[in-house]
């Protein structure tokens, strides 16, 4: 299991849920084109707003250009957060993608 335990789940206004997880990137190539595409595809299945944060910058995880612009490399620590009715499910699916693709680890 990656260093990705659910950091936070809380109810926000209008019954939206906010959830986030921290990940340590272990993939030798970091989050390059192929894994970025897979993460964007996983995030795009959900209605929640989903963001990837790295080095104080946050981008929409549904945007391939945004994800690629961060230049996340091996050894990076990132946070993925989601806000919306399906936030917890989104974080779970993205976590599964990170693990399955060997992007994140302990």
Question: What does the secondary structure layout of this molecule look like, with pairings?
Answer:
Layout: E1 6-11, E2 17-25, H1 33-43, E3 49-54, E4 57-60, H2 64-69, E5 77-84, H3 87-100, E6 104-105
Antiparallel strand pairs: 1-2, 2-5, 2-6, 3-4, 3-5
Describe the protein in words.
The longest helix is centred in the last third of the chain and has 14 residues, at 87-100. This protein has one domain (6-105): HPr-like (Histidine-containing Protein, Chain: A, 2-Layer Sandwich). It is built from three helices and six strands, in the order E-E-H-E-E-H-E-H-E. The chain has 106 residues and is of the alpha+beta class. Strands 1, 2, 3, 4, 5 and 6 form a six-stranded antiparallel beta sheet that branches. It is globular and about 40 Å long. Helices cover 29% and strands 33% of the residues.
Helical residue percent band: 25-40%
| Class computed from helices, strands and strand pairing | alpha+beta
The residue-averaged pLDDT reads: 90
Largest sheet: 6 strands, antiparallel
Shape type: globular
Which band does the percent of strand residues land in? 25-35%
* CATH fold field value: Histidine-containing Protein, Chain: A
CATH hierarchy, class: Alpha Beta
Pfam families: PTS-HPr
Domain HPr: 18-106
Protein name: Phosphocarrier protein HPr
Family: Belongs to the HPr family.
């Amino acid at each position: 299991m990656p260093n990705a335990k659910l950091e936070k789940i809380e109810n926000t206004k209008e019954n939206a849920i906010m959830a986030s997880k921290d990940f340590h990137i272990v993939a030798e190539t970091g989050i390059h084109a192929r894994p970025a595409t897979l993460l964007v595809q996983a995030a795009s299945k959900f209605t929640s707003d989903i963001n990837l944060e790295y080095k104080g910058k946050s981008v929409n995880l549904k945007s391939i250009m945004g994800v690629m612009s961060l230049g996340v490399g091996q050894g990076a620590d990132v946070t993925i957060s989601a806000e919306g009715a399906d936030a917890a499910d989104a974080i779970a699916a993205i976590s599964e993608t990170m693990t399955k693709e060997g992007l994140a680890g302990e």
